[in-house]
User: Which sequence fits this backbone?
């Protein structure tokens, strides 16, 4: 399909009524479970692996940006789509000075705030706010004083794809990422791999009416076989014990890169999760971290089932630098 370089600017905004509400309700209604129950999750191997990939990404790209921060004691991070605060410990280990965190799901935001408030030791200052950061600016919830010192890192983990419902939302998201990120700062994240999802869609039998694929751990269902818009290309995502058929959108990489460039953001890293694994499994620090995070045992044997492995590999990790 041929695409004009800037054709998203010409497209009228097409909203899918009710999708945002489904996403918000889904995340607000997911109960916060304790450590014990978390360990008993049927997809604990997958969850641990995802956390390991995020730790590698934060260490490889977040730490250097934080270390070169102009602020006296390490740096400042914005976590957009912070969820229940699953990355707070990772940022604590990065010895940041301050974090601002937002998410559209207000219940999750309260859980993240509580998690931070009960962290021992509590190593950094943090402010949390409920915000739809794909339609509203950070200034809606943070004061000019809170935003005065620019961010060294902006992190968007497993959440950016919801912004690609419309070009306007993707632009608002990028505006929020870039506006308060210092030059030389890093924007990092994790997102489903559009190329892989669309290749899997193409592999479905030509006469199949069911446009879904996956296994007992995850399932992706498209509604359309041929139409491939750059925005609003919706599919439904199911992940066992985590996500119940929530609408998500394809993030076409070249389109994302091209848009990001208009906000001074340039890609420095893009890898599929299995590549992150293969490249770092022998790295001394990350190998030890894998054992500590129960991604594998001391012999290097993975704690993930094959079906979980297939599910984690629909994602890519990325990093952009602000210039
Ligand atoms: N980043 C967290 C993590 O890695 O654990 C949470 C990831 S969760 C899969 C996706 C998150 O994106 C949810 O918490 C959801 O509420 C949030 N989200 C979706 N749309 C959003 C929006 N418009 N503005 C802010 N957050 C949004």
Assistant:
């Amino acid at each position: 399909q041929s695409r004009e370089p800037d054709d998203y600017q010409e497209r009228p905004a097409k909203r899918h009524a009710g999708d945002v509400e489904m996403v918000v309700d889904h995340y607000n209604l997911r109960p916060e479970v304790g450590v014990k129950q978390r360990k008993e999750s049927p997809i604990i191997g997958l969850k641990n692996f995802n956390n390991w990939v995020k730790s590698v990404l934060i260490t490889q790209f977040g730490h250097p940006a934080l270390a070169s921060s102009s602020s006296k004691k390490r740096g400042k991070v914005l976590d957009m789509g912070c969820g229940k605060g699953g990355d707070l410990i990772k940022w604590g280990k990065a010895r940041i000075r301050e974090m601002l965190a937002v998410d559209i799901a207000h219940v999750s935001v309260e859980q993240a705030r509580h998690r931070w408030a009960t962290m021992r030791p509590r190593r950094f200052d943090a402010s949390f706010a409920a915000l739809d950061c794909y339609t509203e600016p950070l200034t809606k919830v943070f004061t000019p004083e809170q935003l005065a010192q620019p961010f060294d890192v902006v992190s968007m983990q497993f959440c950016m794809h919801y912004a690609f419902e419309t070009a306007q939302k993707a632009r608002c998201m990028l505006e929020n990422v870039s506006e308060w990120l210092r030059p030389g700062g890093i924007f990092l994240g994790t997102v489903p791999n559009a190329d892989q999802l669309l290749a899997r869609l193409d592999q479905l039998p030509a006469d199949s009416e069911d446009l879904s694929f996956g296994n007992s751990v995850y399932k992706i269902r498209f509604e359309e076989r041929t139409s491939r818009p750059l925005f609003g290309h919706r599919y439904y995502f199911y992940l066992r014990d985590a996500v119940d058929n929530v609408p998500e959108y394809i993030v076409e990489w070249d389109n994302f890169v091209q848009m990001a460039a208009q906000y001074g953001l340039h890609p420095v890293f893009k890898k599929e999760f299995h590549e992150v694994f293969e490249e770092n499994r022998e790295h001394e620090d990350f190998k030890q971290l894998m054992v500590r995070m129960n991604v594998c045992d001391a012999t290097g044997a993975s704690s993930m089932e094959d079906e979980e492995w297939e599910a984690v590999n629909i994602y890519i990790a990325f990093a952009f630098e602000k210039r």
In short: Confidence is low (pLDDT under 50) at residues 1-13. The CA atoms of residues 201 and 211 lie 7 Å apart. Residues 23, 27, 81-83, 86, 102-105, 108, 132-134, 157-159, 162 surround S-adenosylmethionine (CB under 6 Å). The two ends are 31 Å apart (CA to CA).
